[in-house]
Amino acid sequence: MRILISVAFFLLLSVTAAQAYEDYENEEQQQDGFGDEDQYVYDQQNPSDINVRSITICIDENRQEVTIKGKALHFFTTDGELIGDIEQNNQYTLRSAPDGIVVGTTPTEHRKLIARSTIGYIQYEGKSYREDLQIVQNPDKGYSLVLVNEISMESYLYGLINKESLPSWKLEAKKAQAVAARTYAMYRKLERPAQFCDLGHTAVDQVYGGLDSEDANSRQAVSETHGEVLTYDNKIVKSYYHSCCGGYTASAEEVWGRAVPYLPGVRCDDCKACPNDSWEFKISMSELGAKLGVPQASRSRYFIDVLQRGVSGRASKIRIKYGSHTEVMNGENFRSRLGYSVLKSTRFTFARKGGTYIFKGRGLGHGVGMCQWGAAGMAEAGSAYREILYYFYPGTIIRRVY
Ligand SMILES: [Zn+2]
Hints:
The chain is of the alpha+beta class.
């Protein structure tokens, strides 16, 4: 049964949250910048049509066939009709065919199927998932298969908290993470109608590990913040967060060029335990030039400097000059050119020594919103999750939407 949301259901609660990093370092992308709207406006989008208690997560795509396992697996159409002529098995390989999805040896004329295990959980590539898996043909990519976990928001968060925080962090930090992640997921769901899913499962959105990533702490952090999201002006906010800020979080304006009242950049004294609190990165002048698009002939004599820094000291505009050519690049673009995992943040200074550029920096991630290591530090020092969230997202109010 669908439970629908309305602003009228909002119960006023109180403040803030926390979290961690692991998969960040290996991801080439992170949460992106703002779309046209930075806040969801309920009354313009007919909220009664959107079920914010559930979420769809893409866990794989571009597959010609997928094998899923589970006890008492059943397949349904999108109308809830059981596909009955499939031989009972604990493992099925589904293939994409021109006329629809083939389950085992049984062709169906359906381009989307829902797999459900009525005993235990569904497994895919060694991971277990709660609730249903959708198998969908993508007409834009040669009808290859997309795999989607359709799950309640709270169950999704059970499998997220430990991917976005460390086991040693206090419960209050994990509760802050739960609220920030719930808010982010809900915003994304409300922001754009899903083609196949509301979110991916990597650090581009938020890292989700399914059932195997759950433990008692993650479930407790979620259940003790059940249904709570961050709002500003009665709208769900875009609750960016990042691994660690290195002393000062970034304003949305300095990173994406657009000021957002609840993302102003704040001082953070609590993330010093972050392994990326300070770092150094060296790169040869010719390699850096190549990454920045400097023509081969100029790679031994180009010039770069920081034209502008934001409230947190992050480089927001960087100038590259060679010959008569001048280019100004924003800080995050510059970072993406070099690689997010090596230029860990734009809170850096640099110097050239002979043919080598040496970057020295602080923090990991875009720096906007909650500093996960900072939240962990605040929780360690005794702050409650609301205090943590209200600190990193000033002016917001925590509300329960279901
Ligand atoms: Zn911090």
